[in-house]
Design a protein that fits this description.
Helix Hairpins, 75% helix
């Protein structure tokens, strides 16, 4: 697992499809859904942590770019 798409495919295996509208909001909701799946013991710790790191990276990327857009 390396990309946000990979995390989406992981969530899809558990019947979770996320599309809120803004990419940042999608990432936030994916993180919540991932937490729920992990806490029900359906997902192993390694996959959970890797997916969380990917979501964190993508969220920070979106945050940075939205800040740049505001400064222009």
């Amino acid at each position: 697992m390396k990309t946000l798409y990979d995390v989406q495919q992981l969530l899809k295996k558990y019947g979770v499809l996320v599309h809120v509208g803004k990419r940042k909001w999608d990432i936030e909701l994916m993180a919540l859904e991932l937490d729920n799946i992990y806490h029900t013991n359906l997902l192993d710790k390694h996959d959970y942590l890797v997916a969380k790191m990917i979501l964190q990276r993508e969220y920070e990327y979106e945050q940075h770019h939205s800040d740049e857009f505001k400064n222009e």
